[in-house]
Design brief:
The chain is mainly beta. It has two domains: 41 residues, no CATH class; 147 residues, Lipocalin, CATH 2.40.128. It is 14% helix and 41% strand. It has an eight-stranded antiparallel β-barrel. A hairpin with a 6-residue loop joins strand 2 and strand 3. The N and C termini lie far apart (69 Å).
């Protein structure tokens, strides 16, 4: 009987501890913003930053969405969109899709894949390039993440011989660039806004 009661007490204690930790991870981030460690931050959300133009033109707007794939946020679904992407790159450019994996208490490594298509007069677009972006980001505070060590590779459609949508493992990219020295980019969380007053 004592063994059964001890087991029940241990299970209840474990459940209380789990709920306490989960509550902190899913909190509104106020504690971490007030000087506590960033492990309290809930990284899920949508972030925005701008990339200065390469030469002439306008800055690019980049929107990144992070969605946890497990209760502790060790794996994230990651989607990156460029709403005003340069049309000279491709007629049709998909968002970049992938995952981020936690590799430190405030650091994630990510891998994204996107596709560029040539628009045809009839039918679906013709694949021109497969884009692979690999890098890392760290949590600066509960409303800011900063990417670093980001590399971008471009592959041609002939480098996906099995047609699964990804470059074959034995292929080398046609183009590989990054990272620029000191090019860490801060991405700010999209805040809840107040309505206007008509």
């Amino acid at each position: 009987m004592n063994t059964k009661r001890t087991t029940i007490i241990l299970c209840m204690t474990g459940l209380v501890v789990f709920c306490f930790v989960a509550g902190h991870l899913g909190s509104n981030n106020a504690s971490a913003q007030n000087g506590e460690d960033t492990w309290l931050c809930n990284v899920a959300g949508t972030y925005v930053h701008t990339v200065p133009p390469w030469g002439e033109g306008n800055a690019a707007v980049v929107v990144t969405t992070l969605v946890p794939l497990d209760p502790m946020g060790t794996r994230l679904n990651m989607v990156e969109r460029w709403p005003n992407s340069d049309p000279s790159w491709a007629d049709i450019e998909t968002p970049n899709f992938g995952e981020a994996v936690k590799v430190g208490h405030d650091t994630y490594k990510f891998s994204l894949t996107g596709w560029m298509f040539k628009k045809l007069q009839v039918g679906r677009g013709e694949l021109e390039s497969i884009v692979v972006i690999v890098g890392s980001f760290r949590i600066i505070d509960c409303d800011t993440i900063e990417t670093f060590d980001v590399y971008t590779s471009l592959y041609g459609p002939e480098q996906d011989k099995d047609g699964d949508g990804f470059p074959d493992s034995d292929e080398k990219p046609d183009v590989c660039f990054g990272p620029e020295p000191g090019a860490a980019e801060a991405r700010k969380r999209v805040p809840m806004m107040e309505p206007c007053e008509p």
